[in-house]
C-alpha cells in the first residue's frame, strides 16, 4: 500500500526528498503555473499537479447533456469545485484507495492547490500501445485485468469516476489508480456510480480490444464476479437508458461520427446484448466488502 503525507518529509512512508530536491521542487512550483508538469531530478522523476479551472473533456460535456436532457442520472458529472476544494477532494479519494489496499501515487509534497507525486512509470494506456502489435494476447489480457481490478475497487465500497487506461498504471503486476478528479458518488448513490464506472470503462474495452468477441465478455465477467447485485441492477438500468437514446446518437453520428459517439455506440450495443440481469451468487461480493 502506498502512503500519503502532508508537506515535505512526508510521514507514514511517503517520499522523503533531499534538501537539494526540495529546493528544486520549490523553484519549479513558484516559477511555473502549468497544470501538470514533469520534473526530472538526478535521482528520480516527480510530477507536479496544480488544481485549477480546466476545459472539460468532450465526453464529460456529453455526459452532462445526456444527464440533463435525456434523464440519464448515471452520467451526471461531479460538481466543479474551487481549486482548494478540488485538492481536498482528490487527496481524500487517494487516501481512501490507499487505505483499501490499492496502489496510488505517493505524495512528496502538498499545498492547498498543488501536489508533488512520484512517477508511477508507464500508464496502462502506454503499455497497451506497446503491446498492440507486439503481443495482442497480452494487450487484451490487460484490458480484462483492469476490469477485474475495477471490480475489486467496487467491492471495497469505492468508485473511480474516470476509469480510463490512461489513469491506470501497473505495479508489481497489479493495477494501480490515479487522477481522482471525478467523484460521482458525491452526486449519486454508490452503486449507480459504480455502474457508471464500468459503463465508461467499456467505452475503452469495446473500441480498444483486438479480439472484442472474446475480450469484452471476459472483461465484463471479471468485473461482475466481485460486485454487488445492486451494482449489476444499476448497470442494467444504465444500459437500458443508453439503449433508449441510441437511435438519437446514431442519427447524430450520421452527421458527425466523432470518436466519443463511436465509443458510446459500441459500448451500449455490447452491454445491451450482455447478461446483466444475473442474480447475486454465493461468491459475489456485496458493495463495501472485498470480493
3D architecture notes:
With 291 residues, the chain is α+β, with helices and mostly antiparallel strands. Helices cover 51% and strands 10% of the residues. The chain contains 9 helices and 6 strands, in the order H-E-E-H-H-E-E-H-H-E-E-H-H-H-H. A 4-stranded antiparallel β-sheet has the order 1-2-4-3, with helices on one face. The protein has a two-stranded antiparallel ribbon with strand order 5-6. Strand 5 (168-171) and strand 6 form a beta hairpin. The longest helix is centred in the C-terminal third of the chain and has 27 residues, at 229-255. The chain is globular. Mean pLDDT is 83; it is low at 1-6, 8-13 and 279-291.
Key traits:
Phosphorylase Kinase, domain 1, 9 helices, globular, disordered C terminus, two-stranded antiparallel sheet, about 290 residues, about 10% strand, alpha+beta, Transferase(Phosphotransferase), domain 1, 6 strands, 2 domains, 4-stranded antiparallel sheet
Summarize the structure.
The protein is 51% helix and 10% strand. By secondary structure, the protein is of the alpha+beta class.
List low-pLDDT spans: 1-6, 8-13, 279-291
Count of all domains: 2
The proportion of residues forming helix, as a percent range, comes to 40-55%
Instruction: Determine the N-to-C terminus distance.
Output: 18 Å
The level-1 CATH class of the largest domain: Mainly Alpha
What is the number of helical segments per DSSP (H or I, 4+ residues)? 9
Q: Estimate the mean pLDDT confidence.
A: 83
**Backbone CA Rg:** 20 Å
CATH level-two architecture of the largest domain = Orthogonal Bundle
* CATH fold category name of the largest domain: Transferase(Phosphotransferase), domain 1
Following the backbone from N to C, one meets helices and strands in this order, namely: HEEHHEEHHEEHHHH
Percent strand equals 5-15%
Shape: globular
Biggest sheet statistics: 4 strands, antiparallel
Amino acid at each position: 500500500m502506498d502512503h500519503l503525507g502532508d508537506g515535505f518529509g512526508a510521514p507514514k512512508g511517503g517520499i522523503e526528498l533531499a534538501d537539494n530536491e526540495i529546493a528544486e521542487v520549490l523553484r519549479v512550483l513558484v516559477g511555473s503555473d502549468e497544470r501538470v508538469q514533469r520534473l526530472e531530478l538526478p535521482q528520480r522523476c516527480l510530477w507536479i499537479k496544480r488544481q485549477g479551472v480546466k476545459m472539460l473533456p468532450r465526453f464529460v460535456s456529453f455526459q452532462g447533456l445526456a444527464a440533463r436532457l435525456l434523464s440519464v442520472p448515471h452520467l451526471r458529472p461531479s460538481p466543479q469545485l474551487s481549486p482548494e476544494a478540488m485538492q481536498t477532494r482528490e487527496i481524500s479519494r487517494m487516501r481512501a484507495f490507499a487505505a483499501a489496499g490499492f496502489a496510488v501515487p505517493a505524495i512528496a509534497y502538498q499545498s492547498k492547490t498543488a501536489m508533488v507525486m512520484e512517477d508511477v512509470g508507464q500508464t496502462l494506456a502506454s503499455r497497451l500501445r506497446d503491446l498492440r502489435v507486439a503481443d495482442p494476447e497480452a494487450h487484451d489480457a490487460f484490458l480484462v485485468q483492469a476490469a477485474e481490478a475495477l471490480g475489486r475497487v467496487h467491492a471495497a465500497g469505492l468508485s473511480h469516476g474516470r476509469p480510463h487506461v490512461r489513469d491506470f498504471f501497473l505495479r508489481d503486476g497489479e493495477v494501480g489508480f490515479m487522477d481522482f478528479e471525478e467523484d460521482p458518488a458525491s452526486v449519486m448513490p454508490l452503486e449507480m456510480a459504480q455502474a457508471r464506472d464500468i459503463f465508461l470503462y467499456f467505452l475503452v474495452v469495446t473500441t480498444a480490444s483486438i479480439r472484442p468477441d472474446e475480450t469484452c465478455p471476459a472483461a465484463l465477467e471479471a468485473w461482475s464476479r466481485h460486485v454487488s447485485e445492486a451494482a449489476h441492477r444499476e448497470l442494467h438500468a444504465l444500459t437500458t437508458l443508453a439503449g433508449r437514446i441510441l437511435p438519437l446518437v446514431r442519427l447524430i453520428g450520421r452527421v458527425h461520427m466523432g470518436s466519443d459517439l463511436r465509443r458510446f455506440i459500441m459500448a451500449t450495443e455490447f452491454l445491451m446484448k450482455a447478461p446483466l440481469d444475473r442474480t447475486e451468487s454465493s461468491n459475489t461480493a456485496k458493495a463495501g466488502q472485498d470480493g
